[in-house]
Specification:
- The protein is of the alpha+beta class.
- The chain is built from three helices and four strands; from the N terminus they run ββααββα.
- It has a four-stranded antiparallel sheet, covered by helices on one side.
- The radius of gyration is 12 Å and the shape is globular.
């Protein structure tokens, strides 16, 4: 995982379950209010890039921190 105050990149091995979990995550409307999520495949990996839409948005930064905490366990 690579992280800054306003963004992060997270990678996982690309299994069917991982792809489905990350795709579901990228469609969660509550997250999309504050964060821009991009999901791509890079060879054998699923890559999730997360950016705070407005760098000065405290709620967006909080969402980013919370999401990264959740990603310690997800996707599985």
């Amino acid at each position: 995982m690579h992280r800054t105050d306003v963004g992060a990149e997270v990678r996982w091995g690309a299994g069917f379950g991982t792809v489905a979990s990350v795709a579901r995550l990228a469609g969660e409307q509550e997250l999309l209010r504050h964060l821009a999520l991009t999901v791509t495949l890079d060879g054998p990996e699923v890559v999730l890039v997360i950016l705070v839409k407005e760098p000065g948005d405290t709620a967006g930064r909080d969402r980013l921190a919370g999401l990264l905490g959740e990603l310690q366990e997800r996707p599985k």
